[in-house]
Specification:
Blueprint (H helix, E strand, L loop, with lengths): L6 H8 L14 E7 L6 E8 L5 E9 L2 H14 L4 H5 L3 H8 L6 H31 L1
Antiparallel strand pairs: 1-2, 2-3
Helix pairs in contact: 1-2, 2-5, 4-5
Bound molecules: FE2/S2 (inorganic) cluster.
FE2/S2 (inorganic) cluster binds next to helix 2 and helix 5.
């Protein structure tokens, strides 16, 4: 079975980068939690953003298949140092082509794209709330 997979995906699966979690209440942290309806797998991806709007670090926890774990590991490496705008342009096909995922595993990379977008959205919402709060003072 393993031979069906490219070494890139196996490498990220066996040595996942940036497994962990951050305080979701930290104002500089955005958290995305998404699930794949097809299989029930769940991915949590968090980003911490610098004042200049670039991603300082990203961590993940994935309850799911090997391809989802590899996709999230790859995604946390990919977003580091990028602006949020750049991060929001990442496509699941970028991830799946890097990892050379087989077609039946495309939805696993979709989970990573969705998780990045959800983390960015969470951060944007937090910042909006913060601005609203400081305007009221
Ligand atoms: Fe569903 Fe991989 S099988 S995320």
């Amino acid at each position: 079975v393993a031979r069906a997979y490219h070494e890139n995906v196996i490498n990220h699966y066996e040595n996942p980068r940036n497994v962990g979690k951050m305080n979701k209440d930290d104002p500089d942290v955005g958290t995305g939690i998404v699930g794949a309806p097809a299989c029930g797998d769940v991915m949590k991806l968090q980003i911490r953003v610098n004042d200049d709007g670039t991603v300082k670090e990203a961590v993940f926890k994935t309850f799911g298949c090997g391809s989802a774990i590899a996709s999230s590991s790859f995604a946390t490496e990919w977003v580091r140092g990028k602006t949020l705008e750049e991060c929001s342009t990442i496509k699941n096909t970028d991830i799946s082509s890097q990892l050379k995922l087989p077609p039946v595993k495309m939805h696993c990379s979709m989970l990573a794209e969705d998780a990045i977008k959800a983390a960015i959205k969470d951060l944007a919402e937090k910042r909006r709330l913060k601005e609203g709060a400081s305007q009221q003072q």
